[in-house]
Amino acid sequence: MSLLMTLGIAATTMLAQSPSQVGEVRLHIETDSPKVELYRVTSDGVGSISTFTRSARVDIVHFQRECFAPCDMTLSEPRSDFFVAGRGINPSERFSLLGLGEDVTLRVKPGSTVTRALGWTSTVVGITALSLVAAVVLVEGVDSLGKPTLGGGMSKETTWMVAGAGGGAVLLGGGLTLLAFSGTDVELLPTPKPAARREVL
Questions:
Q1: Is the pTM higher than 0.70?
Q2: Is there a domain that residue 149 lies in?
Q3: Are the CB atoms for 46 and 57 separated by under 8 Å?
Q4: Which of 99, 112, 117, 183 has the fewest C-beta atoms lying within 10 Å of its C-beta?
Q5: For residue 152, is it within any domain?
Q6: Which domain holds residue 134?
Q7: Helix, strand or coil for residue 144?
Q8: Cα separation of 176 and 136, whole Å?
Q9: How many whole angstroms separate alpha carbon 27 and alpha carbon 33?
């Protein structure tokens, strides 16, 4: 009986000391931007907007700011959802601070809202240009664009179509590239403990 009680107490002690069960986390943010801020999600909700003809679902998120980079403070309730954002910085994906021990480092590579806006604009303009070229070709037919003759150049209509398709493709590719690099990346790492100093006798 005493052996079972001893094993139960030992298991309870190990569970209490497990990194996933810590009640507080000391956090450090490692980033090149002083505008990085850490936010805690306090609650989620769902709402709806209705008109006479249709309705739409709206996700409602309540959050509060916890600290500015480099933070270096103790946070309670690490099981909450957190995200990184800031002025001119795209919000990151949500993450939890559980499972990394009592000392955690966030390595943040912020993404720019300006870059994302340029990416969306370039993508939309590129898709629009390609759609217009495709619509003209479908409506008028390929033969209506004119064919190059021996010793002569392309017709003016064909030149504009080729230029429009090429420009649209460049804008689309550039926009997708900007969008891919505009996100905020967060890497969660356990904070390394300083090495113990050795005294020379």
A1: no
A2: yes
A3: yes
A4: 117
A5: yes
A6: 114-180
A7: helix
A8: 25
A9: 17
Alpha-carbon distance values, 184 to 27, 84, 112, 181, 193 (Å): 18, 8, 8, 8, 27
Contact of 80 with 25, CB cutoff 8 Å = no
And the tokens for 35?
A: 């505008």
- Residue 165: inside a domain, yes or no? yes
Q: What is the pLDDT of residues 62-112, one digit of tens each?
A: 889 999 999 999 999 888 999 999 999 999 999 999 888 899 999 999 987
Q: Is the peptide bond before 70 cis (omega within 30 degrees of 0)?
A: yes
CB 22 within 8 A of CB 101: yes
The pLDDT tens digits for 115-137 are 778 888 888 888 888 888 777 77
Tokens linked to 183: 């996100």
72 touches 104 (CB < 8 A)? no
Which amino acid is located at 198 in the chain? R
Q: Compute CA distances 150 → 98, 153, 155, 158, whole Å.
A: 72, 8, 13, 16
CA atoms within 13 A on the CB side of 181: 7
Q: Is residue 65 part of a domain?
A: no
**How many structural domains compose the chain?**
1
